[in-house]
Amino acid sequence: MDSFHRKYMSRAVFLARKGRGRVSPNPLVGAVVVKNGRIVGEGWHARYGGPHAEPNALTLAGKEARGATMYVTLEPCSFHGKTPACAPLLLRAGLKEVFVAMQDPNPRVAGAGIRLLEEKGLRVHLGLMEEECRLLNQPFIKAMRHGLPYLMLKSAQTLDGFVARDDGASRWITGEAARKKVHRFRSEYDAVMVGIGTVLADNPRLDVRLSKGRSPARIIVDSGQNLHRELYLVQTASRLSTYYLSPPASLSAQDELIRQYRLIAVEWENSKKGWEKALRYL
């Protein structure tokens, strides 16, 4: 019986992934409505501010939702935000039961959606494929619990441990497949961060070209006063959000350039407290 239910929750997880790069700061959520062993409706949260997975699935199911079972990767929300609360929609649809992968870590929900469903007589099963769904929403979970962004490190080096030639000249270390994967990751994350050394050596674009999806914001970390007008990230800052993290004195010294090219200045110090303050802002 567990494999029967896992099949439909796996489908919900697959659907949730379709929202990558489009729903932040909201979580990735997928939902499937099943009746008599047949999927009658499914949906996912496709864009920030748009309908959630559950109403999308219920709309597709229509009258077939009555007496059906829903599989959803995250606890239905219980408050009205940019869209109406989802939990009451499930009750009005006349579902028989709901399988919920994990509780919503958002303090505004945190079990309230499940309690509402159960209090109104809807059977709720919590925990099916919970680990998979937690992995799916690690950025959202960290933001809710710690108020900090989720970070992924991208690094490349040769088999003998080098990252560049002796003379510092830039050349590709990674292959085409790896570069495409990096661009896919860029499209799924909100921002890409680099140090000023990389900016000066490579004059990178940090956009998405080898994959579908939108380009992320750019973040430059600089402990000195190294910005100049010829840098691509500076010249394009008015078109794509570009954050410049630097000590207060450095920001003040470069204020004219920062304003002219519309960079977003963020005070930063290279210390534990300095990093935490900057990351919370971001």
From TrEMBL:
GO terms, biological process: riboflavin biosynthetic process
GO terms, molecular function: 5-amino-6-(5-phosphoribosylamino)uracil reductase activity; diaminohydroxyphosphoribosylaminopyrimidine deaminase activity; zinc ion binding
Coiled coil: none
Pathway: Cofactor biosynthesis; riboflavin biosynthesis; 5-amino-6-(D-ribitylamino)uracil from GTP: step 3/4; Cofactor biosynthesis; riboflavin biosynthesis; 5-amino-6-(D-ribitylamino)uracil from GTP: step 2/4
Membrane spanning residue stretches: none
EC number assigned by the record: 1.1.1.193, 3.5.4.26
Domain CMP/dCMP-type deaminase: 3-116
Role played: Converts 2,5-diamino-6-(ribosylamino)-4(3h)-pyrimidinone 5'-phosphate into 5-amino-6-(ribosylamino)-2,4(1h,3h)-pyrimidinedione 5'-phosphate.
Family membership: In the N-terminal section; belongs to the cytidine and deoxycytidylate deaminase family. In the C-terminal section; belongs to the HTP reductase family.
Protein name: Riboflavin biosynthesis protein RibD
Organism in which the protein naturally occurs: Caldithrix abyssi
